[in-house]
Amino acid sequence: MVLLKNLILRNDTLKDIFKECSSEKMDFLINGISSNSKEIKKGYIFVALKGQKLDGKDFITEAQKKGAVLTVAENLKKDNVISLKEGMSRKVYSLLLSCFHEKQPKQIIGVTGTNGKTSVVEFCRQIWGQASWKAASMGTLGTKIDTSNEKNNILKSNENLTTYEPSRLYEQLHFLARKEVSNLAIEASSHGIDQHRLDGIKFSGAVFTNLSHDHLDYHKNIKNYYSSKKRLFTHLLNPNSSIAINIDDSYGEKLHNELNKSNHLILTFGQKEEADIQIVSSNTNNKSIDLTLKFNNKIFQTTIGMIGQFQIYNVIASASICIALGMDPDFVFKSLGYLKPARGRMEIVSDNENKSLVIIDYAHTPQALLTALSSLKHFAKGKIITLFGCGGNRDIEKRTLMGQIAYQNSDLVIVTDDNPRDELPSKIREDILQGCPNAIEIGDRNNAIKFAVSKLQDNDLLLIAGKGHETTQTIGMESLPFDDYTVSKEAIKNIKKIGITS
Fold first, then answer.
1. Count of CB atoms within 10 A of residue 499's CB?
2. pLDDT in tens, 253-283
3. How many Å separate Cα 220 from the centre of its chain?
4. Within a 10 A sphere around the Cβ of 168, how many other Cβ atoms?
C-alpha cells in the first residue's frame, strides 16, 4: 500500500494528470489498482477501460460500492473521478500499475515482430543464463526464470496472451525484481504495444525480427501493423538504448533507415554484406546447422542444434541484442552452440522406425508456414505431409493463402481444426480448402494427427503446424485439454494399431 501523493510522484505523466487532486485525495491510502470491478477492494483505484464488448464506465458504481476510493475514466466529470482525455486511460492504467508495483529487473529488452518472438526471448534468457546472470523470459510460454537456485522455473499465464495484461505484467515484473532477476526478455506483441500495456516498462533494448501478414483483423492494414511495432522503438525505449534489427526483412530495413539518426546503439543482422552481424553461410545437417558469421571483420563459426533455416535468424537476433547490450562477442557466439529450441518451435517429437520425422511448430501465419516448409525441404528425403488449421475469430484473409502455401510446398495436406472459438469449424476449413482443394479434411484434430502419422512411410516428414506449445483446444467458450506433442507421440507408439476414417 502507498499514499496516492507518493504513488504519482514516481512518474511525471501521473504528476501532471493528478495535479488538481485535493490534498484530501492525495492522502488516500492506495491498496491496489484494477480495471475489473469484480477485483476491486477497499482502498483500490478503479480504471474504467472501454473494451470490445464492455465499457468500464458502466461498472463505476459497482467499483465504488466495493471500496474504490478513486476512479479514472475518459471524459467523465464526477466526484472522485479523474477525467482523462480520449485515448489516455490504457496508458494511465499501465503507468499507475508500474508505479504501484515499483520494482523491475535492471535490464529489460522487448522483442517484436510477426514471427520469432518466443524463440528470441528464450535464447536471450539462455545466453544470459550461461553467463551465470539471473535471467528470465516472459511471453507466450509464460514467465521462465533461470537463476542459480531456480533453473527453468515456469510461471504459467492463464491469459493466453503474448504480452500480458497490465495487472499481471507489472506484478510479475515486481516479483522478478524481488527474486533478484537482473535481465529480462519480454515478447512485445503489436496488440500489447498498441494498447499501451508496456508503457510503464523501463526498456533498455529492443529487437525487430520481421513483419508479414498477421492480425489485420485488428490493425486493418499492414501500415497500421508496422506503426504499432515501430512504437516500441520510438516511444518506449529509454534514451541511449540498444537495438537489434533484421535488415534482410524489408520492414526491418525500413525501420533501420527511420531510426538511423536516433541516439540508440543499433546492430543490424542478416545475410546482406552491410549487416553488422552477417550470416556468411549455413549448412544444414540432419538435426543441426553449421553457421559461419562475420562481426567486426572477424569470422565466427558455430553449430546450433536445431532444424529450420528461420531458427538461424532467431539465434542471431538474440546474439545481436546481447552484444549490443555489452556482452563479449566471443562468449556470445560460443554460447550459441548450447541453445535449445523453445517448446513447440520446430520440435522433433521422435524418430519412427522407418526414419520418418514428426515435427511440431507454432507456424500460424502465412509467412511462418512458408518459412517452416521451405526450411524442411533442406533435409526432407521423402514426402512432406503438412497438417494445420486456422483459428476462429481471427484474420480471415490468411486462411486461403495458408492453404495455397501448404499445397505448393507439401506432398499431402491435411486440413483440421485449430481453436475454432465461436466460428463454425467447417466454415474455417472451407476457407482454407479454397487454397488447397486436393487436401484431406479431418475436422477432429486428434483423429487428423493419428491419420497423418499412419500415412508416414520411409524418410517421410510430417509437420503439425499452428498450435506448437499450446495445451488446449478452444471450441466455443470452452478450452479443452489438447497437446499436439502428446497426441502425436501416442500415435507413433500405436501406429500399427491405428484404424482411422476421415
1. 6
2. 999 999 988 999 999 999 999 999 999 999 9
3. 20
4. 17
pLDDT in tens, 82-140: 999 999 999 999 999 999 999 999 999 999 998 899 999 999 999 999 999 999 999 98
Does the residue 178 lie in any domain? yes
Q: Give the cell for residue 46.
A: 478503479
- Local confidence band at 213 (pLDDT 50, 70, 90 cut-offs): low
State the angle between helix axes of 117-130 and 310-324 in degrees (0 to 180), rounded to the nearest 10: 50
Tens of pLDDT, residues 371-428: 899 988 877 889 999 999 999 988 898 999 999 999 999 999 999 999 999 999 999 9
Q: Report the candidate in 270, 359, 356 with the shortest Cα–Cα distance to residue 308.
A: 359
pLDDT of residue 156: 54
Boundary-marking domain end, from 99, 130, 162: 99
Report the distance separating Cα 146 and Cα 115, nearest Å: 24
Instruction: Enter the pTM of the model.
Output: 0.85
Are 333 and 365 part of one and the same domain? no
Q: Are residues 214 and 291 in the same domain?
A: yes
Check whether residue 82 and residue 154 sit in a common domain.
no
How confident is the model over 67-76, as a mean pLDDT? 94
User: What's the domain range around 27?
Assistant: 2-99
- Say whether both 13 and 52 belong to one domain: yes
Q: Are residues 93 and 140 in the same domain?
A: no
Which residue is associated with the grid cell 546481447?
322
CATH number where 306 lies: 3.40.1190.10
Query: Angle, to 10 degrees, between the axis of helix 366-376 and the axis of helix 310-324?
Result: 110
* Diameter of the chain measured on Cα atoms: 78
Other Cβ atoms less than 10 A from the Cβ of 6: the count is 12
Answer yes or no: are the C-beta atoms of 72 and 82 closer than 8 Å: yes
Q: What is the spatial distance between Cα 80 and Cα 28, in angstroms, rounded to a whole number?
A: 11
Axis crossing angle, helix 250-259 with helix 222-231, rounded to the nearest 10: 50
Determine the Cα–Cα distance for residues 281 and 469; give it in Å rounded to an integer.
Answer: 30
Tally of structural domains, the chain: 3
CATH at 62: 3.40.1390.10
